[in-house]
Task: structure prediction
Amino acid sequence: MTAAPPVGSLTDRVSLQRRETTGEDEGGHAVIFVPVTSLWARVRALSGRQVGEADARGVAVSHSVVLRFRTDVKAGDRFGYRGRWLSVVSAVDLNGRRAWLSCACVETGVVG
Result:
């Protein structure tokens, strides 16, 4: 069982956004992100690597985001953090007591 983080370590302000799909007049669909709420969390960068995306070099950085337990955070959501977007890959109960939620997130970008 993982030890619970001290409440004082939740020093990062993040905004939670939910992924929504809407229809377009031309017959396709568009993906938009709808703001849900702002939260206090602990954000830590874990690793980074270069990836190939189309004709450009990209980078993927994984992060851990720990916050108070919520039942509405799921894969596909994202956190806004210091002008960056962290996409939620998974969200699990940190210690089985429904007190803390640990989210594995990834940030991707193109570098050239």
Q: What stands out?
A: The first strand starts at residue 12 and ends at 23. The chain has a mean pLDDT of 86.
